[in-house]
Write a structure and sequence with these properties.
It is built from nine helices and no strands. It is an all-alpha fold. It has two domains: about 50 residues, Arc Repressor Mutant, subunit A, CATH 1.10.10; about 140 residues.
Length: about 210
Amino acid sequence: MDTSDLSRPRLGEENWLAAAYDVLTASGVEAVKVMPLAKRLNVSRTSFYWHFKDREELLEAMVRRWEDKNTGNLAARAEAYAESIAEALFNVFDCWINPDLFDARLDLAIRNWARNDAALQARLDQADARREQAMKEMFLRFGYEPQDALVRAKAMIYTQIGYFSMQVAESTAYRISLMPGYIEVFSGKPPSQKDLARFLARHPDRHAPAS
């Protein structure tokens, strides 16, 4: 062991994952390597092996985090209780404005990585299928025909992937201001004021105050 590390606080697994996340989302998976990460964290590479067997184990941890956070939370929001399809859609829209629920940068990084990794592409396909099924079932709960529900679910997924891929730059307040229109586009029905008020109440610091 490098004794110079003994005088420094020992880094935890989260420190390494955070550093790997920063590199992955900024420069791609090829840039995620143990020695550069150690230099970034100002420790020797031996510190890494307290937490991970090798680089592949670190990358696997990143993928599992993406699966649990992005796909897991998106499916959970689609399955959450709602009194109307508009409220159900607003539940899903929570993911688009709350980074604690859904990490758009990580989603894009995973998609870029999967282009050159067949095994990861298979997991990405499974994740997209789970997201699609959750959204389709959301529409089915509110009486939409199966084919209609599927098309609407796909439209939502492809729209959001487009947002990530194009790296659309718009304020959260502006994005929220468009959401009632998106509700009508995706569901065929405008949201009620009650539905909108419930949604805005969950995000008091993210939208512009009503005039």
